[in-house]
Design a protein that fits this description.
With 109 residues, the protein is an all-alpha fold. The protein is 94% helix and 0% strand.
């Protein structure tokens, strides 16, 4: 049979082992928490960088489309000027007709 002295050592050793294991678990959880925080920070930075890249691409595409629209408008203006120079009477008739139409539509309520 085990004596009280040997049971005290066994219980003391067991409590000490459990305390050591709990401390190891705490350290592991702390390290795991830090790893997750670092990973989240890294993923957040990657998401911000990706969003900034997409915004820059969209801005560049919008600038390109605006430039193309300006060029097309300039071409249409040039064509209109050529038409007016080549056929002034027709251009004057079209302008008068459009003016009358806009005035008529604007006066209706």
């Amino acid at each position: 049979m085990a004596t009280k002295a040997s049971q005290g050592k066994t219980n003391g050793t067991a409590v000490s082992d459990v305390s050591d294991q709990i401390e190891i678990l705490r350290e592991d959880l702390s390290a795991l928490t830090q790893t997750i925080a670092d990973l989240s920070r890294t993923k957040g930075d990657e998401a911000i960088t990706a969003a900034k890249d997409k915004m820059a691409d969209a801005r560049d595409k919008a600038a390109d489309q605006a430039q193309a629209a300006r060029q097309q408008a300039a071409e249409l203006q040039g064509q209109a000027n050529d038409f007016i120079r080549n056929q002034p009477a027709t251009a004057l008739g079209i302008a008068a007709g459009l003016g009358f139409l806009v005035g008529f539509m604007g006066s209706r309520k």
